[in-house]
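Quick one: structure for this chain?
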Amino acid sequence: MFAGLPSSVEIREVGPRDGLQNEEPIAVDQRIALINALSATGLTAIEAASFVHPKAIPPMADSARVMEGITRVPGVRYRALVPNERGTLDALACAVDEVEVVMSISETHNRKNINMSPEESLQQIVTLTDLAHQEDTPVEAILSTAFGCAYEGNVSPERVALYARRVVDEAGVDGLSFGDTSGMATPRVVHELLDALENVGIEPSTVGLHFHNTRNTGLANVMVALLRGVSKFDASIGGLGGCPYSPGATGNISTEDVVHMVEDLGADTGCNLQKLIGCGELAEELVGRQLPSQVLRSGPRTQTVAS
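Got it. Here's what it folds into:
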């Protein structure tokens, strides 16, 4: 065991939603096939759908059909992003296991993404959390642009921490996650945000982090966060993804790459790496291009070739 790291780490798969939302739309049965394949890898949380208006994010159209068509595996939580009351009610009608609500700390990005100010988003999260809790469905609040914004530049970690504290206190959400929407996180910025969260009474061990690999710092950011006690990370099969409202925000960190590194450090993810690689190959087939995952190309470090 690598000294100072959590003994177990949860990798939350976001490829079927955050990964595919930035691709050309693929058929519902193909989205279902990808989720079903991921469900057989040992993952315990899969972001399966987004209940946004199809005109806003065409690749996420027919999310209700996706949720109705997947084969649910015991022990796997199927999560869905919701933008508003209509989306929340639709997600609850599909019996999602967890609801994700989102706000951007950056005023500019929040208006481009959901046409609200951060303050308006906070009040909406209060409403959406109440709706979900009426059905005993847990809610995680995702605070986007938490490490910087493509439009506004640096985002104050103290501002992020203030909104995080308020989302917990005012909305009563069940979990918090922080998104590197513009791919601006570095190990230094990760430390600064975790320090700011601790200063408002939010322990790193209780939060999830969502990194992109836009500037090739994704795994370094995971390593730093692990050493601070974070044990929940979002990742996307093959490195699919990006944000349609954040210019230049290339793919998420790859699920295969994160699992490979974390397991090598001695922490347990519960995931079968070879099955994940198979899912990465399926994802490449579905989107019709090579994805940026390194482990998908080279295999695990212990893989040998004939001499």
